[in-house]
Every structure is written in C-alpha cells, then in structure tokens.
Amino acid sequence: MNRTEFIAATAVILFTTFVVGWLVGLIVQRLTRPTRAGMTELDRMAQQLHEAEDERDMAVARLEGREAELMGKLASADADLQATMDALRISRAEIEELRDYIEKKLVQR
After folding, report:
1. Where are the domains of the chain?
2. Which of 49, 62, 66, 92 has a C-alpha 20 to 30 A away from that of 32?
3. Residue 95 Cα to chain centre, angstroms
4. Is 1 buried (19+), middle (13-18) or exposed (0-12) by CB count in 10 A?
5. How far apart are CA 31 and CA 104, in angstroms?
6. Cβ neighbours of residue 34 closer than 8 Å, sequence gap 6 or more
C-alpha cells in the first residue's frame, strides 16, 4: 500500500464514519422527538403550573394582608396593655396614699 492508496483509504473510512454518524444522529432525533400527545401533555402541565403559581401568589397576598391585620391588632392590644398597666400603677399609688392617710387618721384619734 503506497501513500496515495493510504490517503484514499483513510478518506473513505473518515467519510463512511461521518455518514454513519449523521444517520445515527437522524435516527436518534426521530426516536426522541416528542409526540403530539406528549406535547399536549406538556402544554396541559404548563397551564396547570401557571394556575398553581397564580393561586400561590393570591395565597401569599391574602397571608400578607392577614399578617398586617394581626400586627395592627397586636399593636392595639399592646397599647391597651400599656395604658392599663399605667392606670394600675397610678391606682396602686393612690391606694397606698389612701392607706397612709387612713393610718395617720387612726393614729391621731
């Protein structure tokens, strides 16, 4: 086998390998192509996903609204508690003053 025959044989082998690879690629592409039923199923799943995302967004919005409402109620209850504690402190001080006054009056008699 001389140099020319070797180059020709190598070219034929490379060309044959290229053609076989190309044919295998076409076959694989045809076998893995999604069917119409598969595409319909994918479209249905995509639609369900969008609906689920919309429902999630609405649930998050409702949750945030409810959280804001509860935080407002908590702040109001905290303010009421503080006002009640202040009034109780003042009442205790007045009671203590009245006790002292009564004790002084009882001692004076």
Report:
1. 1-33, 34-108
2. 49
3. 55
4. exposed
5. 106
6. 42
Map tokens 């190309």 to a residue.
22
3-state secondary structure the chain: CCHHHHHHHHHHHHHHHHHHHHHHHHHHHHHHCCCHHHHHHHHHHHHHHHHHHHHHHHHHHHHHHHHHHHHHHHHHHHHHHHHHHHHHHHHHHHHHHHHHHHHHHHHHC
**Which two tokens mark 58?**
């609405």
Alpha-carbon distance of 63 to 56, in angstroms, equals 10
pLDDT attached to residue 108: 84
Structure-block tokens of residue 28: 């694989």
- Low-confidence residues in the chain, pLDDT < 50: none
What pTM value is reported for the model? Answer: 0.52
